[in-house]
Structure formats: C-alpha cells, structure tokens
Amino acid sequence: MPGTLWAIAEAGPDGHLTKLSAEVATLVRGLGAAAGRDVAGLVTGTPGAVAAVAAELAAYLPRVVALEAAAAATSPIAQLAAQGAVQAIGADPDASIFIGNSPDGRDTAGFLMAALGVGVISNAGGVAWNGGPVAEKGVFGGRLITTSSFADGHGIVTVPLGSVPAEEAASAGVVETITLAGAAPTVTVLERVSEAAGAVQIEEAKIIVSGGRGVGGPDGFALVGLLAETLGGAVAASRAAVDAGWIPYARQVGQTGKIVKPEVYIALGISGAVQHKVGMQGAHTIVAVNTDPDAPIAEFADLFVVGNLFEVVPALVAELESRKA
Ligand SMILES: Cc1cc2nc3c(=O)[nH]c(=O)nc-3n(C[C@H](O)[C@H](O)[C@H](O)COP(=O)(O)OP(=O)(O)OC[C@H]3O[C@@H](n4cnc5c(N)ncnc54)[C@H](O)[C@@H]3O)c2cc1C
To answer: Are 203 and 260 in contact (CB under 8 A)?
Structure first.
C-alpha cells in the first residue's frame, strides 16, 4: 500500500536488535494503527547474520525486510542501510521512515535524505500522526518544545531512546529477504574499536551512576565505578568530566552527549546545568550527592543528599554490600 510507515532497525554489537530499534518499531506500529497505514521494518546485515535480527524485529512488526549485504562486514552499515532502503522503499514516494537516533541511524537518515530528496526531523522525542508524522522536540537545551510536520505529509524522522516503551505485537510478522543491489560503498571500515569488555552501554542501562567535576579527577571515577558495579549499573559523566579527559566521550550525558532514561540516575558531584539535565531528566528516579545545598540539581532530583561524595559513596557501598551478604 502506498504511504507505508517504515522502521529502519539496527543490530547492536552483540548482534541482537537494539532496544532503540525495538522502540522505533513499536512507535511505527502505533502510528500505523492511528494513520490506517501499512507498517514495515528494514534491517541490514551480512547474509546469515541478518536473519536473526530480522526475526527479532518481526516480533514488533507485521512485515520485515531483511537486507542481505555481503559488504556489511567491511563497509559502513549506515550507507548500506540507506542503499537498501532506497531499493525497498524508493518506489513509494509517500512513505515515511523512522530511524533510531543512534550514530548509524543519523548517518542513515542523512544518506536517505539525499537519496530520496525528502526532509528529516531529527531527534523527535514524541511523534504523533495528523495527516503525517507530527514530531515534538526540545530545542535550546530543552527550554522550548517545538512541534514540526512535513509540508507534504511524509519524510524521515529520527527518534531518541525512550520515546516509547518497546512492546512486542500480539503475533510475529513475516520476514522477506532481499539482496542489496548495485555497487557496495567505496568507503571501507579499516578498524572497529570496542569499549572495554563488560562495560555496560549507558543507553541500555537501567541504573546509571554519573560523575561530574566534583569527582575531582580520573581516580574519583574509580569510586563512581565501584558504586555502579555494586548496583549492576553503568558509569556516565557530565561534560566537565569528559572535557577534562577523565572519562571517554561515549559516557557523556546531555545536550551534546547521550540522552538516557534509566530507572535510577545517581549524579555524583554534578551541578545540574540545563545542558546536563536535558540528557537525564527522563530518568524515573534521580538521586544527587552534592556538597552545595543550592546546586541546581536539587530542584529536580527526587532525592538530594547534601554531602561529600567521597564520604557518602563508600558508606553507601558498604551498606549495599552488607545487605547483599
Ligand atoms: C552548547 C553546550 C553544550 C553542553 N553540553 C553538555 C552536555 O552534553 N552534558 C553536560 O553535562 N554538560 C554540557 N554542557 C556544559 C554544562 O553547561 C556544564 O558546564 C556542565 O554540565 C558542568 O558539569 P558538572 O556539573 O560536572 O560541573 P560543575 O558545574 O562544576 O559542578 C560540579 C559540582 O560538584 C559539586 N561538588 C564538588 N565537590 C564535591 C564533592 N566532594 N562531593 C559532592 N559534590 C561535590 C559542586 O558543588 C558542583 O555542584 C554544555 C554547555 C554548552 C554551552
């Protein structure tokens, strides 16, 4: 049917459908129901490997296209996904395409925008349907919410983590397999660098322990890591800590970092600047430890502990350990 709504999904480093892709697929299914439009998913990968991810995606959508691309082993996946989307979707000029706002998702959206000649609404935290996608997004560090739609009712929307909870459909969909046509991209991936084994990705973590300038240096992050490990959570940071070189950028939360929505976010030595707040305000429960009773984070933390993190954290870890025993 013309005007199909597509979810372009991706596999994570573990080879499984990412949580973000499952959320995007759920969002698209809901929009399809609201719009009375067909919905479908597309996922790209090497022959063999892509079948498993496509099957996972089919838990959320009635129809999934698995794009087999031998070049996925050596080429940027975003470019292949975009080429595949043009192949699968290009003949439907009224299609709307929804993509997770991950690094690869953003690249895919860019390639597709150029290839299909349609507009992109990026990082849309809320998407509804009114004759086409209507997207809400925070701008100016979350101070303003804008509502945008496409002039001709269709386009590409990138969606951040946590827009909707992922929910499988009542029954699994069908998977069609196609092979990427045309030349593979000329760009070759020379090296893939993975984060240390066992490091929990902050986008996926249910518990995040985050350190700021108040942590005082790289050694202070050992304490942040200890609490994260005790709670089975992930370590994150403010930009001040990242800019100081205490922790990699991949761990930064905020306007120029990642948007996270864990169940619990523990901010240690973080003042709560608006650019940090926009990245973590969606956490279910925010706990902050700060020596300054007037730190801005006190205004939006659910539990605000006035204290020195170097005293509070060891005491908290000891208490948690004693309860485990
Ligand atoms: C365009 C732009 C984009 C930005 N993007 C981001 C972003 O993505 N993410 C981000 O985080 N920031 C971002 N920033 C920076 C932001 O404005 C703040 O400068 C930054 O968040 C401050 O980090 P912080 O809270 O760690 O440091 P500070 O603001 O210096 O706060 C440190 C806090 O630690 C407390 N403290 C000190 N010692 C202790 C102790 N022993 N125990 C407990 N508490 C202690 C202090 O009281 C203080 O509140 C951006 C800024 C701009 C202009």
So the answer is: yes
What is the best residue among 290, 311, 312, 313 to mutate for testing ligand 1's pocket, by most ligand atoms within 8 Å of CB? 290
Residue 256 C-alpha to ligand 1 middle, in angstroms?
A: 13
* Pairing mode of beta strands 63-68, 39-45: parallel
Check pLDDT > 90 for residue 22.
yes
| One fold for 5-179 and 207-324 | yes
* Domain residue spans of the chain: 5-179, 207-324
Say if domain 5-179 classifies as CATH 3.40.50.620.
yes
- Least confident among 80-94, 225-239, 264-278: 80-94
Q: How far is CA 40 from the centre of its chain?
A: 20
Query: Region 38-57: what's the mean pLDDT?
Result: 95
Q: What is the pLDDT of residue 109?
A: 96
* Smallest CA separation from ligand 1 atom 51, residue: 275
Distance 305 CA to ligand 1 centre (A): 17
Atom of ligand 1 nearest to the CA of 256: 8
Contact call for residues 42 and 8 (beta carbons, < 8 A): yes
CATH class of 207-324: alpha beta
